[in-house]
């Protein structure tokens, strides 16, 4: 089969590799029908995630069809159309039993495209298939479901829920890429008074308005002053960091009001300074997190009922064999306007 293989920092290739086999009796083999590229994949290719070894197949998001299951798999059968979640959970360890699947200690968590071969391939092996695959309703399209593999539950759980967005809040979201846009979309489920999007790219701020941002601010035009003016000098109730750089994290800590909440979602490859000399007195809560995907079933129900429109994240479409071109388009989002790309089976 063909797959996207990491060749070390700055190197990748679409090449022929061996088909995956069942390794454990809880595994399933899934034919990939639709897959996407994540900002985290770009971080990996930059060398920001050193656990990923050269030769690994990248990717942790897909929709596909089950073609083989292990003897211990229940609830998932050959022929099932499924969502492949970015998180695999054993369902049995102390973390999985409380819904913290991202912290699974029995070989789960974020492993696809990270610690084991991932989804940017024609077929993928999925461990813990009965607790890590989600059967899809007929009414939900492949493209819509694909956005629930990672970005929407990540934004919802690590950004909106960890940030405790509440009615009448002012929510500032730093970064209007896919995670930031998903944060805007899901923040509105809690009726905030206003949502402020901050980004360097005018095209992404336009996208933010389309996704429901009430105010769009350019990051290089003093967004701190603008947020203070909008909030009578207090700052935002919730600030969501959706980029993953020291500058954006530190900006978030300056935007939050006393008693407010900074929810970090961005993947950081470099240290950021925590200015406790100014934060200690402000009763600020800062949360970090890897998505657990405990919300995926709920989000699927919302998708099926029309409460969420996730297909609008996709701006560019390719076939699987166009993986290298898709990476070029996605990585150059400031020029191409790419939000999310979808690659489908040839």
From TrEMBL:
Xref: InterPro entries: ADH-like_C, ADH-like_N, ADH_Zn_CS, ER, GroES-like_sf, NAD(P)-bd_dom_sf
SUPFAM superfamilies (alphabetical): GroES-like (SSF50129), NAD(P)-binding Rossmann-fold domains (SSF51735)
This enzyme's EC code(s): 1.1.1.-
Top-level taxon of origin: Bacteria
Identification of the protein by name: Alcohol dehydrogenase
Keyword check for Zinc: yes
Cofactor(s), names only, from the UniProt record: Zn(2+)
One MF annotation (Gene Ontology) recorded for this entry: oxidoreductase activity
Keyword terms: Metal-binding, Oxidoreductase, Zinc
Entry keyword Zinc: yes
Membership in a protein family: Belongs to the zinc-containing alcohol dehydrogenase family.
Enoyl reductase (ER) domain location: 7-343
